[in-house]
Prior knowledge:
The chain is mainly α. Helix content is 52%, strand content 0%. The longest helix is centred in the first third of the chain and has 17 residues, at 37-53.
Amino acid sequence: MEKFHGGKVVSFRLPHETPIDVLNFLTDLKEEHQRKFSSEIADRFVATMQEELAGKPKKKFDKSLSIPIPEDLTPEEIKYLQNHRTKAIIGQLLVQLLKDPTAEIKINSSEEEKIINKEEPKKNFVNDQKLQSFAQQNFLDFDDD
């Protein structure tokens, strides 16, 4: 196998699983640096290799997941998806699906109750005297005829 040397061309493919934000960042870099894009990427590649050689700890596994959202969502739907409670519920669903894909999906009841309470405020029954007397006169006939 041939050894690497300065000026050697190194080519590689981006993995299919490359996060969209990384792809967007690379696109922005390419637009910014244009003809010098490969030099910029080479500098970053060499810097990363030097960090590994220096023994800097590798980046720990990122405990987040980037999921692209459909482009046809309304701003309200996007805002709802960015809410920390919504993200927590989606996280619970993912964990349940990973553990047992065939099981019934259950959402944490306290979270579910909070969401329901915020969406639909409870209406208290109003005991209106006029309404009660109207109902007694017209609908409630307790006489045995």
